[in-house]
Hints:
This protein is 56% helix and 6% strand. It has a two-stranded antiparallel ribbon with strand order 1-2. The protein has a domain at 41-96. It is mainly alpha-helical. α2 (43-59) runs antiparallel to α3 (65-95). It has three helices and two strands.
Amino acid sequence: MVAIGDRETVALPPYSIDGCSALQKRQHRSPQYQHRFNQKQPLEERLVEHATRLREEAKALPPGIVREAILRRAEQAETGAHMTQWLRSAESKSSA
């Protein structure tokens, strides 16, 4: 036990009540329980749409720090879209 001010702090054991840590439970999960889903749109399209939504949101805001932060996020989303397009085109060229 460690005394901090007028309180005592007790370290908890690394295992849960059933004897397995959370990490062990995650490692032993069967693949059928993994949450996976297929995206209906390519990443580039989703990023461009996100950037468009952010720019529309920024238009409604007065000039200031919040608006600049939202515009910066829109630029990052557009850059991400361009990067994924570039990477995919380089990937297709290398496989040809």
